[in-house]
Specification:
The chain has 462 residues and is α+β, with helices and mostly antiparallel strands. The chain is built from 18 helices and twelve strands. This is non-specific serine/threonine protein kinase.
Length: 462
Amino acid sequence: MKSLNYRFPHSRQDSGQMNLTRSQLGQAQQVTNVLNNRQNEQNIDRSPAPMVHGLHKLAVPSSQQSSANHSKKSSISKQQQPKQISFLNYLILKDKSQIAQDEEKENINEPVVQKNMFNFQFVIGIGGFGKVWKVEYKKNGQIYAMKEMSKALIIAKKSVNSVMNERNILSNLKHPFLVNIYYAFQDRENLFLVLDYMQGGDLRYHIGKMRRFTEDQTRFFMACIFLGLEYMHSKNSLHRDIKPENLVLDKHGRIHQLYWLGYVRITDLGIARNLRPENSQDTSGTPGYMAPEVMCRQNHSFAVDYFALGVIGYEFMLGKRPYTGRTRKDIRDQILAKQVQIKRSEIPDNWSLESADFINRLIQRKPANRLGFNGPHELRQHSWFKNFPWSKLMNKELKSPYIPNQNEDNFDARQISMEDEENNELIQQHSIMLRRNSIQSQFSGYEMDNFSEKQNTLFNNF
């Protein structure tokens, strides 16, 4: 075996291909010495003769055996003679290969969407982990809502599983009565969700202005919410936090190419969960809208969302919730004390008995007695929705009976501008933890680009 050939550059073209440092040349010389030493060792047969009954077996080489071995080695060397390359060329090829692999990794890890791709206009809401912005995507001028969540707050509130779960559930849901996700990405300090922008604001803002809604408005809103819940339940997902703050009005409609405000969409899947047989420990929610079985730590199913829907109907009709209290315990005690029902004398003028019956059957304390416990068809078939144009609602061909102001963004600027000092303190206390790779790894896989051509076609069909 010949030692490796080294070819040093003699022309400017060769020297431009690879400039080796002294350490690399030294490394090459060391490799050569090792190879030469191994070759010399192979030429010397230092192996002991085999042992037979404790005695060395005499190995007498014959001329025929030596000749045969020499012939065999010659044959092998002719068949398996490797193609020799200089060590410098070997280093060049190895270096190029490593560069290509590094570039490939960078392309894989490079985020599809980044924060600097958006123009941030103003804050439209405050969440448990940060703010919600109205943003413009620079690439095409499209307006979105961007949910910005502080990792420090998420760590402080031990909610990593919650935010990761929200992103995973959102990525599996696409529906015209949900606020849908387009992108998810992160940087060192924050997580970002890019969602449908709802110009109409949330129902909490509007009920604060209106105090109550009419029966037609309430039926329209509840029908929109029901279609969103029906779809979520078909995907085995529970929302578990249906309330006016999480119900927003969009700007959409296709009849005669007109675009209307007033269709309700469901948002904020922060505590949504996929249905499991054993979920008695999943007790998150908002007191006042939380179903009794959740509050009492019992296993629960899709009927929990229908209870919240009934509370919203009650609130829209009477301007208050059926169970109230300053604390969660107060509300729980009220639920356990009595079953609240809308009395005939309480029904407002111009409201029907069917509307009260529909709401009363949704706010039943026992899930088995609740409308929708046996399936969504129970809501569709109730007399309050007799002859209701479900298909036109699904296609957004109906004019909403409630039209918010179309010339402004319907948000409470005073509430949004309030500083959350407690959250700011938590961010400062826990921001140093974000330097740890072990903390950052908990958010691995958060990135998502959901705006493919297929999805674009789907959303245009809404």
